Amino acid sequence: MNRLTIHAVLAASLLATLAILDFFTNTDPFRLADFAQDIVEWALMSFGVAAASYVVLGLHDAGRRQSGLAADLDQARAEGNRWRAAVKVHTEGLGHAVRTQFDTWRLTAGEADVAILMLKGLSHKEIANLRQSSAATVRQQAAAVYAKSGLSSRAELAAYFLEDVFPSEEIRNGSPAVAAAPAGAGLPGIPHMSEAGGQNAR
After folding, report:
1. Is 107 exposed, middle or buried (0-12, 13-18, 19+ CB in 10 A)?
2. Cα–Cα distances in Å, from 65 out to 68, 70, 130?
3. For residue range 78-87, what is the model confidence (pLDDT) as tens digits?
4. How many of the other CB atoms lie within 10 Å of CB of 7?
5. Could you tell me the CA-to-CA distances from 6 to 1, 11, 14, 47, 53 in Å, in that order?
6. How far apart are CA 152 and CA 129, in angstroms?
7. Per-residue model confidence as pLDDT tens digits over 95-115
8. What DSSP string describes 52-80?
């Protein structure tokens, strides 16, 4: 039985109780019109009490749910902070390696920024809004990144750097397709990051 039904039954029970009490305690002669008026008043009062109770309990539950969500959010933030602290050294090293590779590709500062934001998953429009430039400019810079790196898409750009994060030998017992790839190999036509140090832009 849901809460609304419970409160409706409560209101009806209260109304019936008031009617019975009046019937046995009222010494005046019974008049149908007076009784009908009393019924209407009792009904309004009963359903008003039930409605107020329903609203109060609803607000209480909403507050409890909000408190639970806030607690979950705080826990998620704490876990995120712990994870970032644990991998800080590694992410800083990866960031430096990515920037070094951008220098090897001779990316301009703007092209490197666009490449970083693409690696973060932002769209061209989002990058343009963030850098306060036009989407056309961002597309041109993205095209320059692909041309200088010898890559052809955002997916290949991400895979170029993630290959070193997930070396094949560490997950050789996983996906057959991944296990079949030779250790240190990237996507077809994409050099392994460790081999790219001496490569220039194509």
Report:
1. buried
2. 5, 9, 35
3. 888 887 777 6
4. 19
5. 7, 9, 12, 12, 11
6. 24
7. 888 889 999 999 999 999 999
8. HHHHHHHHHHHHHHHHHHHHHHHHHHHHH
